[in-house]
Amino acid sequence: MSNVVIAPMLVALVTAILTLVTRARPRLQRTVSLFGGGGYVVAVGVLTWRVFSGPVLTYQLSGWTAPYGITLVADQLAAFMLAMSAVVTIAALAFSTDYIEAFGQQIVYHPLFHLMVVGVTGAFLTGDIFNLFVWFEVMLMPSYVLVVFYSGPDHTRAALQYTVLNLIGSAVMLLAIGGIYATTGTLNMADLAVRLSNPEAFGITVGPVVGLAALLFAVFALKAGIVPFHFWVPSAYEAAPAPVSAMLAGVTKKVGVYAIIRLLFTVFGAAQLDLGPFGDGSMLLFFGPILLVMAIASAFLGGFGAVGQSNLDRLLAYSSIAQVGFIVLPLAIVATIPLTDGGTVAVLGGEFTVPTGAGTDGLRVLGIVAALLYALNHAVAKSLLFLVSGTINAAVGTIETDELGGLTRSRPYLSGAFLIGGLSLVGIPPLMGFFGKLTVFDTAATAMATNGTVGEIAAVTALGGAILTIAYVSKAWNDAFWGTESMAVVRATAQPLALLSIVVVLALVLVVLGIGLDPVYEGAHGAASAALDRGAYIDAVGPSYAEVQS
Amino acid sequence: MASELPALLDTAVFAALVLASGLTLLAGYRVIVGPTTPDRVVALDTIGTNVVAIAVLYALQTGEGLFVTVSLVLAIIGFVSTIAVARFVTEGDIIE
Amino acid sequence: MTENEPTVIARTVVRIVVPIILVTAITLLLQGHNAPGGGFIGGVLTAVAFALIYIIYGLDYFETEILGRTALPRALPGEPVEDETQQRPGVTKEFSEVLAIGLAIAAGGGIAAIALGYPFLSQAVAFVEGIPLFHEIEVASALVFDLGVYFVVVGGLLTIVAVVGAE
């Protein structure tokens, strides 16, 4: 029990309240907001350091023990995701203090931004699926307002679509959670994993959970913007202010990805049952093929969509659909292939056994490492690109590629930042993106040895997706940055130095992450192992069954 | 605590529940068919009143005081919504 | 006020009903920690009571008659305004302050538990005896959190009612 687990959430919550209280004094509010953002980064940093140098940390809210109370669990996976979101958060926050007009900032921007961070943090840390729903809502409600921030007709239409879709998603999620509680009698994730792997001991049937898990999975796919649940992405990202788009693409999307990893691999994967045509074994086998199809569709639909866009934000939005396809592709590969050496581990002092998540061949770990590295690359690179697009908007006043051109001459640093972000998406060494792509290909190649078809399909998809990435990044580069200077660029005199410096720093982060990959890779490896180490997760939470057995 | 009720009252409560539920369905038909807005409003108001009645009857049947609170809150909100809709129908604006 | 003033019946009924609603709301708030009720529904009912005043007496009545201020003339949405305070009813600002205070109370109640060495959001209960009329009163610290929720709901809903009602 350590307060360090809850610190990031509390820092963000207190900052949200303080920025609400100091609304009458905009300068003070902005300072409080920035200090709060800095405090958040420090809190996340301490938590990450503690988790990576020690055991899994848990926190029982108001002292009720699991599985009855609300548990927060900080394992290496959660810490990795938190650290990723902290980088994007502080950059987006610093960017918005200069980018969003003063009146808008004063009214609601800062409190909402920090509330969104509270939701994100809670979603990463929670160890309870109903609580996950609550944090999703806390994260989404501010994002509804932030998407409609400019409140023009187009923004309102986009925000309405975004809001309605996510509300439907939330309703479905609640339904699925209710069903899971009715079927298994628990909402605690660790407890759920124990019960699903020992159905006889608890007198439950596992069959219905497959369908309910599929409902949950659809909701997470909606939040992550995976085809066929991607249609809200382009208009919402285009409508939202640039730093908010950076947050949506860099952070809230990753919450969906995190939920898929956590629930499918750590929790539902523990269930062993006969899935008919999908095979006999872990519940993951059911989701593998589905995830594979969705990943392929995302990579291609997003890629083709991006090539045809003439608005920079829309192009980036379609690109982020394609990139999420890349993130879930390795997950799909390893979910499809059954574990050959699936032994069991004893948990809770030997009282129960659960199937191990990771095999000895290391393929599953590799797949999740690939997904995490790619997610990190996407989080930093895509938010960098959205911030570049915002800086262009602030400097030139338009982000239509037809009206831009020749930015390299007048704005070399801005163009350089875009180039770094774009090349990282494409995957050019020594940038972060290269290693992300490399591990994705590595997973596909390793999988070919075990299951040829899946590995080949995945490799072809990754290759096709990579070519499409090159196509749309070079298109954006050619249209907006190279060539002769357009009228709009020539006339623009604004020099948003503060915005530019943030963008350049973020670009440097991307380079540093690539060059100094070792610790990042170690972190991703630790996070992937934690996601599959059900034994450690369950023992850390330690649900007590005293009442159940008496 | 249903067993503490006299048999006659128990039957009466049950009959009233069936009656109120049936009425709610009939009012639901009027809500869907219309044809005019006031028709729908009156039907919705009837449904609200019926739900309050069902809550009270259910409280009688189960002996749970909780449902009396529920009916109280429902009645208050139903009252205000009726007034708001009436204002809207007569003047086209709720708050001025 | 337009040419269609609400009838005397409506005005009189509202005068009687509003206090009843408020009493119900506060009852639900106070019993919320261990019986049906709580901050949320108490807040909703309080907001409903204020909404009733708004519907029958109009937006300005609350400011001029109850708070005893002069209501500022309001600009219509889209009209250019010189002064930001004119854009919305003046009382909206107070409503959103109520929201902020509520949020602070709710979070502060949780953090206080940490300061005392218990996990976040820990609650306690004490029974105070020998109070005239009541004999024994149950003082639960969960009430603090409920009170915070109550203020958040009241502030949030009334801001919405006042802003939307003004348009």
UniProtKB/TrEMBL annotation, chain A:
The keyword Cell membrane applies. Residues 128-333, 367-451 form the NADH:quinone oxidoreductase/Mrp antiporter transmembrane domain. InterPro entries: CPA3_Na-H_Antiporter_D (IPR050586), NADH_UbQ_OxRdtase (IPR003918), ND/Mrp_TM (IPR001750). GO terms for molecular function: NADH dehydrogenase (ubiquinone) activity. One of its GO terms (cellular component) is plasma membrane. It is a multi-pass membrane protein. Keywords: Cell membrane, Membrane, Transmembrane, Transmembrane helix. Its main location: membrane. It is found in: Cell membrane. The chain crosses the membrane at residues 6-22, 34-52, 72-95, 107-126, 132-150, 162-181, 201-222, 255-273, 285-308, 315-337, 357-376, 383-401, 413-436, 457-477, 497-517. GO terms for biological process: ATP synthesis coupled electron transport. The keyword NAD does not apply. This is Proton-conducting transporter membrane subunit. It comes from Halapricum hydrolyticum. The lineage of its organism: Archaea, Methanobacteriati, Methanobacteriota, Stenosarchaea group, Halobacteria.
From TrEMBL, chain B:
The keyword Transport applies. The keyword Iron does not apply. It is found in: Cell membrane. It is a multi-pass membrane protein. Keywords: Cell membrane, Membrane, Transmembrane, Transmembrane helix, Transport. Pfam families: MrpF_PhaF. GO terms for cellular component: plasma membrane. InterPro entries: MrpF/PhaF-like (IPR007208). One of its GO terms (molecular function) is sodium:proton antiporter activity. The chain crosses the membrane at residues 12-29, 41-60, 66-89. This is Monovalent cation/H+ antiporter complex subunit F.
Automatic annotation (TrEMBL), chain C:
Pfam families: MnhB. The chain crosses the membrane at residues 12-32, 38-59, 98-121, 141-166. GO terms for cellular component: plasma membrane. It is a multi-pass membrane protein. The keyword Mitochondrion does not apply. Its main location: membrane. This is Sodium:proton antiporter. It comes from Halapricum hydrolyticum.
